[in-house]
Amino acid sequence: MPELKIPSPVGLSQRDRLSFLLKDSVLYGGAAAISKAFALITFPLLARHFSVEAYGILDYFMVLASFLAILFIFGQDSAVARYFYEHEDTADRCQLISQSLVFQLAGLTLILPLLWWGVEWISKVLIDAEGSVRFFKIVIFQLPFLLLINFSQNLLKWTYARAKFLVMSLGFTLVQASLLVMAVLLLDVGIRGVLLVSLFTSIVFGLLGLLFIRRWLSYPRNFRRLYEMLPYAIPFGVICVLAALSPALERTLTDKLLGAEDLGLYAAGTKIAMLIGLAVSAFQTAWGPFSLSLHKQDDAIKTYNLVLKLFVIVTCLMVFTLTLMAQPLIHFLASDRYIGAEVVVFPLAMGLAIQATSWITEIGISISKRSYLNLYAYTFAIVSTLAGIMLLAPLLGLLGVSLGVMIGYAVKAISSSWLAQRAYPLFWQYSSVIVVLGLTLFFGLLAEWLGLYWGTIVHDMVLILGIIAVIAVGWSVLLNPSERQGLIALSRSRLASLIIRN
To answer: Quick one: pLDDT band at residue 2, thresholds 50, 70, 90?
Structure first.
């Protein structure tokens, strides 16, 4: 089998490593983020087409499809990503990939008939809505193809197959959005029609992804590579299931505690907060391969700390900016019917920012291959989230739901970072990072509280003060003089290259 060369940041300078990560974040991460943004791209169309209650039900089944897909993947994507770089030989990598795919498809073959047999009972337990059985059956049909899409996109990302990756990510989103526009505007479809469009697109791109990765597939000689990965994959499988279960539970509790209309408002608020999620997801897509390929280098922690500092500054500024824009965004994208969703944007966006920061500081768990440690963090997070929602939602309504979710994110970030240090100690520069996150949290919550009594103008003024504080502290305290000089040099070189191109 011919050797397939893969690019790597190993051997590059700190500035070049940063440039490498930025490029991959924009290319791979940006494309993957846009692919995940389907719900946001179609949000204005669907929010205006359906009632608030109906949109909440549709959003529920879209989230349910994602959860079930992650359930069947069961950590195999994380395991293949971790062990892919352990092998240099192409034949070994092909066996690793093929054995993982067979394992996932075998799990689907065993479980899907059981889901189909219990579809009526499961639907009634999940959500009490007219047509829920039909909606759930469509979700079940979609699962094998969602698995193939996820598997092929990950493999194309790890092997730096840029053109094919873009087809699978951007192409999928473009085709699905286009078909959905035609179905809604020309055929006036309901919830079932939207789910059928999603099913059709998943079938097409699932098969296309399989075609794209065929060079990496071979007949499994045995399942030795799978057995090697399972101790790492099983804890990650539980972790991924817990992480995907949380949004479904949030919506179930919102529906039970506050009602169908608040479920629709919460769904709308999560779409606005998703803008932060897309940005951090783009970074995470590039960070995984980048950090794991670099971890054996002596100066890896220097690069990790620089990335951490820059990421925290940029993410906190994005949280403030999104919160400032939340009301006009909801009005523009959905309508005034959803304006009550504004209250959930800051807590959800801040929670996503805190979680994304911990993706960097918990790298020691992946390096040490002690993935089971994340089980503790995710368990603590889900318990904290559910407890927070049940305690705060009756008192604060939707704001209480979002604060409960933010508390869960914070608990997960703190516990996973602490466990990572126990598993694989690294010299993280925590103190100044915590200061910037604390400033963001303080000004954001202060703005929400004062806004309730003094209105939008005071709310926005406090947020602007928060932006100024984060910029000042981030530049002068978080970054040291050599890092500031390096960033200035990198910015100048990028600007000069843009000028030359134009």
So the answer is: very low
Angle between helices 52-73 and 224-258 (to 10 degrees): 160
Q: What is the mean pLDDT of residues 207-216?
A: 88
Instruction: Please state, as a whole number, how many other Cβ atoms lie within 10 Å of the Cβ of residue 279.
Output: 21
Q: 252 falls in which pLDDT band (50, 70, 90)? A: confident
Q: In 3D, which of 43, 31, 73 has the Cα closest to residue 194?
A: 43
DSSP run (H or E) holding 6: none
Residue among 451, 492, 468 at smallest CA distance from 346 = 451
Mapped onto helix, strand or coil, the DSSP state of residue 296 is coil
Contact indicator for 314, 470 with CB cutoff of 8 Å: no
What secondary structure letter does DSSP report for 107?
H
**What sign does the CA torsion over 223, 227, 233, 238 have?**
positive
Taking only the tens place, the pLDDT of each residue in 355-367 is 888 888 888 887 7
Q: How confident is the model at residue 22 (pLDDT cuts 50, 70, 90)?
A: low
Taking the C-alpha atoms of residue 109 and residue 121, their distance in angstroms, rounded to an integer, is 21
Q: Which two tokens stand for residue 233?
A: 């994959």
